[in-house]
Amino acid sequence: MTLVDTTAKGQGETISFEFDLRHVPHKVWRALTDPALLAQWLLPVADFALEQGKAFTFRRPPIGGWDGTVHCRMLEIEEHRKLSYIWRAGDFVDTVLTFTLTPTIAGTRLSLVQSGFAQKQNAGGARYGWKLMGANLIELLDRIP
Amino acid sequence: MPSAAVAEDRIFQALGDRSRRAIFESLMRGEAAVKDLTARFDISQPAVSQHLATLKGAGLVKGRREGRCVYYRVEPRGMKPLLDWIEHYRAFWPERMARLERLLDEMGE
Hints:
The structure holds 2 protein chains of 2 kinds.
Chain A: E1 2-5, E2 14-21, H1 25-33, H2 35-41, E3 45-46, E4 55-59, E5 69-78, E6 82-89, E7 93-103, E8 108-115, H3 135-142
Antiparallel strand pairs in A: 1-2, 2-8, 3-4, 4-5, 5-6, 6-7, 7-8
Helix pairs in contact in A: 1-2
Chain B: H1 4-15, H2 18-28, E1 32-33, H3 34-40, H4 45-57, E2 61-66, E3 69-74, H5 80-106
Antiparallel strand pairs in B: 1-3, 2-3
Helix pairs in contact in B: 1-4, 2-4, 3-4
């Protein structure tokens, strides 16, 4: 597998990767959409269904101040091509996760984009968002010894 | 030294308030005393002091006394737990993708 980190430099709000897999898209799609398979490579999942608007949750052991639950909501389903859902963890990570499958001679190019780390906080809410990831903060962090 | 969870909670709480965010962002432009901040925002001096105490408790700002004045500035290291979130995912996905590939190898067509 070749893995390319395609995240743009200096971009604080999106992380993206591309993976070349030697398996056909319909098989990769199964791994992305079958709860039993998801549990094997990603995380145990509850209430997962390929229905737009469907809420489901992944669970992992608690970490830091977060109970380990990832709250998701299905956004876009294009069979064997694209899967997109909200990925919300704790008060702070409110992102959209998108998998895109492109057939290649060798198998599938799988692109993964997690975006929205820098979303503006909702008014008055506890979600702060990532606008402080802007130039000011980066510059300050560069000065940390 | 508070645990990582407590430290994160304090940061999230401190930054969960709009006025405190405004004060914090204002301090990112440079050091300021309470009276400077009171002049910049439509908030009373005791309220500004209270917000600064919360930000300080979360490790996001530091104070420096000079005569009768305390000057506050941003403590950049205080933001580290937040940046760790992104780093968590940057490390998370390649590891999960390696697992996905192993699984695909084991699956029938």
